[in-house]
Amino acid sequence: MHTDIQHYITHSSQQEWQPLIEKGIHYKGIFVKSLRYDEASQRSKTILLKFEPGATYPYHNHPAGEELLVLSGEAIIEQASLSEGDYLYTPPGFKHSVSSPTGCILLFIVPEEVEIL
């Protein structure tokens, strides 16, 4: 374990937004910044997602659940509207899609990779 706190800090404002591409699929209008990359699983488990107005992420499953915090804008998840400051926990096996009519930035904690359905 590193003992220098700097090793554990991510300066997200210094990162560029990257297009969201998963398993070769480019999700247009959705961008990502990795906040915590897990070496053991070879994937980011804590991320920022930016949705441009009108962007959608398809119906999917969260095998290990997820946590989501809306940092700005509005997200629609299963017909529920979430806005700045709203928090959502979904239990393992919860299935849903995500859209944003106005655009938004979301903080996601995703213990396991999602499964597109």
Automatic annotation (TrEMBL):
Listed Gene3D superfamilies:
Jelly Rolls (2.60.120.10)
The residues the entry assigns to the signal sequence are: none
All residue ranges annotated as the ChrR-like cupin domain in the record? 7-107
Q: Name one Pfam family in it.
A: Cupin_7
Name listed for the protein in its UniProt record? Cupin domain-containing protein
Q: Which organism is it from?
A: Chitinophaga qingshengii
